[in-house]
Structures are given as structure tokens and as C-alpha cells.
Automatic annotation (TrEMBL):
Protein name: ArsR family transcriptional regulator
Domain HTH arsR-type: 1-95
Matching Gene3D superfamilies: Vaccinia Virus protein VP39 (3.40.50.150), Winged helix-like DNA-binding domain superfamily/Winged helix DNA-binding domain (1.10.10.10)
SUPFAM superfamilies for the chain: S-adenosyl-L-methionine-dependent methyltransferases (SSF53335), Winged helix' DNA-binding domain (SSF46785)
Domain of life (superkingdom): Bacteria
Species, as recorded: Caulobacter segnis
Alphabetized Pfam families for the sequence: HTH_5, Methyltransf_11
SMART domains: HTH_ARSR
Length: 325
């Protein structure tokens, strides 16, 4: 999309200030909350919010509230994104201010990871019980079985396998199944569950949902079950999951619809309080998948959470890239 001269000037004016350029560099790495940006930049919330407002008005970043928090990310389809990326590429990697910001971002990530790992370690043994606190799990699983179909599947990959529930639920429909998770405690629970289910062809492996290292198009069924709300960059996790889907294969995502249960951030380490269709569906389409199912399962009581299930398929005509991530 071509811009007129005045539009280019407005974009350059918005980005052409040191704090705003630092914000763009941080948001190029991942979506971040206002409080996290304030912490990294060591600036007040009003000041940071003012800079973010200017960047949003110029179409360079997107603002999205999530419960009591507000997150920002680079605008995916902004006509100015190319200019932003070019400007960021010009910055020397050794620039002391940018390096310090990157170090502080790494510290925020590490703290998040430590909190999450500690939570998973504390709760691994009763993970399925915790997952059942807010929804009728039997209803959710029945909907997942209907959405995936009978198969059979040659290769299944479950990202963020947790206690292995998707593997035990769907593994008998797959010739081979692989579950990845960063928590060794969760993997140990999953191995026990998989063994009890008699799934000899199911493998559990320590792995990162953002960088699986698996070849593109390696699976005809990929599942991401109640994982995205823990992640700092759910869009990239969806992109990596979609990359693994073979032509004709299916990606299933199950997570919560938007809600206002703020205590889940503090008590259960949820980073996002659910997802709108307007987020998930464009991520799937951007990855070359076609939406098949968009299912909402409301809670049995007014206090519960609505579970969403999205399935999307890669067209048979699209050749999958078979290079490792």
C-alpha cells in the first residue's frame, strides 16, 4: 500500500522520538502490558501512556485491553510497519540504551517464566482438577472429539501438553503422537497418564511452543489446549503451531473467551484473560489456514468461564515448508 507524503511525515514524526523508538523496539519483540513497559523504560505510566497514544494514533501500534490490564503490540497491517522495521534495523545492536532495554525485557521474561514454572511445579499433580474448576470438562472434551473428527491421523503434535489430556483423549486416533512442554513436572505426569492409557506410540519431549524445532508440515493434527492464556506472545505461538500443520491437516485451539476474573492472573499465572474471535481468526488466516469450526461452550453457572474451540485446516493445495524452525 502506497502512502502520500503527508502520511509518511506523520509516521516519521510519531516514531521520531527516543522513547517512542524504544517502545517500538520493545514491541517488535513481543506484546507487552503498559506496566511492563513502564518498568523496562523506568518511566511513569502517564508518560509512557502518552507516547503509546501517539504511536497508536499514527497506526504503528495496536492497543487492546484485557481485563484490568492494557497490552500493546506492533500493528500487524499498518502501512507504516515497513518504515518502522527499516528504522529499527538501522539501530546498532551495541547501542547502550537499546541493549539495556533488551536486558530489562529479558529480566521481565525470566521473572514471568520462574513464576509460571513454580506454579506448574506446585500444581502438576492436580492439574486436571484445576482445569475443571470453571467449566464442564466432559462437555469440552466431547466438543473437541467432534471438532477433530474420527481421523485417523498419521502424526499428532500437542503443544503445551501439560498433564497429557489431549494425548490421552486423541492419541488413539493417531499412529504417532508427540507432546511438548517446558515443565518437567508436567511431562512426568503426562508420561504416567499416557502409559496408563496404553499409548505406546506416544512420545513426551521437553520443548518450547515458540521454537519447537520440528519440521514444517510434520503433523496432520496439531493441538493447543488451554495454553495461549499463559503466553507472552500468543500470536507467534499460533504461527508456530500452524507451521507444523501439513496440507490437509488440522489445527485445534481451545482456550477461554474474554472474561473479567482478574484473580486468575495472580493465583493461576494467567497472562491473558481470554481471546476474542477477532484475534484468533486473523492469526489463523495469516498462517494460511482456513477456519472450520468456531465453537463457544458457555459455563453451566453464571460464575464460570466460556470455553472456545477453534479448528482450522491447511488447504491440500498448499505445500508445507519442511525446514526446522
Amino acid at each position: 500500500m502506497k502512502l502520500n507524503a503527508e502520511q509518511v511525515v506523520e509516521i516519521l514524526r510519531a516514531a521520531g522520538e527516543s522513547t517512542r523508538l524504544r517502545l517500538l523496539a520493545l514491541l517488535a519483540a513481543e506484546e507487552l502490558s503498559v506496566l511492563e513497559l513502564c518498568r523496562i523504560l523506568d518511566q511513569s505510566q502517564p508518560r509512557v501512556s502518552r507516547h503509546l497514544k501517539l504511536l497508536a494514533e499514527a497506526g504503528l501500534v495496536e492497543r487492546f485491553p484485557d481485563g484490568a490490564w492494557v497490552f500493546y503490540r506492533l500493528a500487524a497491517k499498518s502501512p507504516g510497519r515497513f518504515l518502522v522495521e527499516q528504522a529499527l534495523d538501522l539501530i546498532d545492536d551495541a547501542d547502550p540504551v537499546i541493549r539495556l532495554d533488551a536486558d530489562k525485557l529479558a529480566a521481565v521474561r525470566a521473572e514471568r517464566s520462574m513464576d509460571a514454572q513454580a506454579y506448574f511445579a506446585r500444581n502438576a499433580a492436580r492439574w486436571n482438577e484445576i482445569r475443571s474448576l470453571y467449566v464442564d470438562e466432559a462437555e469440552v472434551e466431547a466438543a473437541i472429539l467432534r471438532a477433530t473428527g474420527e481421523g485417523p491421523f498419521d502424526e499428532m503434535v500437542d503443544l503445551g501438553a501439560g498433564a497429557g489430556r489431549m494425548l490421552t483423549l486423541l492419541g488413539k486416533r493417531a499412529s504417532n503422537a508427540l507432546g511438548l512442554d517446558l515443565s518437567q513436572q508436567m511431562l512426568n505426569i503426562a508420561r504416567d497418564e499416557v502409559s496408563k492409557a496404553g499409548l505406546a506410540s506416544c512420545e513426551l519431549r521437553h520443548g518450547d511452543i515458540f521454537r519447537t524445532g520440528l519440521p514444517g508440515g510434520c503433523a496432520d493434527l496439531v493441538t493447543v489446549h488451554q495454553v495461549l492464556h499463559y503466553l507472552s506472545d500468543p500470536a507467534n505461538a499460533v504461527a508456530e503451531a500452524a507451521r507444523l500443520v501439513a496440507p490437509g491437516g488440522l489445527l485445534l485451539i481451545a482456550d477461554f473467551a474474554p472474561h473479567d476474573h482478574e484473580f486468575l492472573r495472580e493465583v493461576h499465572q494467567h497472562r491473558r484473560l481470554g481471546f476474542e474471535d477477532s484475534e484468533i481468526v486473523p492469526w489463523l488466516r495469516a498462517a494460511g489456514l482456513q477456519l472450520e469450526n468456531n465453537i463457544a461452550l458457555p459455563p453451566s453457572t453464571g460464575e464460570g468461564l466460556t470455553v472456545k474451540i477453534w479448528t482450522a485446516r491447511r488447504p491440500q493445495s498448499v505445500a508445507a515448508e519442511r525446514t526446522a524452525a
